[in-house]
Amino acid sequence: MYILKSSTINNLDKPQQHTAGQGLAKLACATLAQTKPSEVQLFYTTTGQPHAKVKDRTYSISIAHTKNLVAALAATYSKRIGLDVEYPRSFSNKILAAFLNQPEIKILRELFPKNKKLRETLAWSCKEAYLKAAGLGLRQHPLSLNIQIKNKTKSKITGKILDTKKGREAFIQAKFTSKQIIAISYYDTTK
Ligand SMILES: CC(C)(COP(=O)(O)OP(=O)(O)OC[C@H]1O[C@@H](n2cnc3c(N)ncnc32)[C@H](O)[C@@H]1OP(=O)(O)O)[C@@H](O)C(=O)NCCC(=O)NCCS
Questions:
Q1: How many domains does the chain have?
Q2: Which residues contact 88 (CB under 8 A, 6 or more apart)?
């Protein structure tokens, strides 16, 4: 089980995004642990991945922010979770080739023939969510990941990400409109 909290606030600067993200992360974790946000302590690994502690119990959390949208996700520690929020945007061919492989580009084009910005940002967002779950962020190359979309509706895709470097499979889900994307990825460390 995971808890997602998000909030739309206009024109936040970076320090405000950071503070709002931490507040939402404490709220999400407190909801999961059935306690008060003031009981939740946040800490970061050396690679920058956030975690939370309530008494002597550790929780997985993930935080993402943009100028107008902040979100945080919390889950029990056996799950590694990652979250990304994005506005659909254009990528140059050079950037595109640096994070999507050719089969992924082909499948995404078939699934979203009319909206290039949306399909490319969705893929970016799913990979970033996984890389945050894995804790390395962009220190791990996005081309080492393969997205497999299993289901697509008007506002949601679900599927998995294969991490070819770690030999791991993670769940991905992204909810989208033409203006905004929220992607979540997680995998179970006990499997
Ligand atoms: C993780 C990363 C992809 C996040 O992307 P972003 O554009 O900075 O911003 P987002 O809003 O999506 O996410 C920011 C949050 O990601 C989280 N984060 C940062 N590094 C993380 C990591 N290694 N693993 C998981 N989460 C991480 C933090 O909670 C951060 O918010 P906070 O500092 O306010 O708590 C990116 O920062 C990254 O790859 N960092 C590691 C490598 C690096 O520093 N490279 C330099 C640029 S290539």
A1: 2
A2: 115, 117, 118, 121, 122, 176, 178, 179, 180, 181
- Establish whether residue 103 lines the binding site of ligand 1, counting it when its CB lies within 6 angstroms of any ligand atom: no
Residue 71 — pLDDT band, cuts 50, 70, 90? very high
Of 77, 96, 128, the last residue of a domain is 77
Burial bucket for residue 173 (CB in 10 Å: 0-12, 13-18, 19+): middle
Report in angstroms the alpha-carbon separations of 50 from 152, 176, 177, 187: 30, 25, 28, 16
**What is the position in ligand 1's atom list of the atom closest to the CA of 85?**
12
**Tokens encoding 107:** 């499948």
Identify the band that residue 41 occupies on the pLDDT scale cut at 50, 70 and 90: very high
Q: Domain containing 8: what range?
A: 2-77
**The predicted structure's pLDDT at residue 1:** 75
Same domain, residue pair 162 and 145:
yes
Distance 110 CA to ligand 1 centre (A): 30
pLDDT band at residue 9 using 50, 70 and 90 as cut-offs: confident
Distance 113 CA to ligand 1 centre (A): 30
- Say which CATH number the domain at 33 has: 3.90.470.20
Average pLDDT, the chain: 95
75: closest CA among 191, 173, 185? 185
Distance (angstroms) between ligand 1 centre and the Cα of 108 equals 25
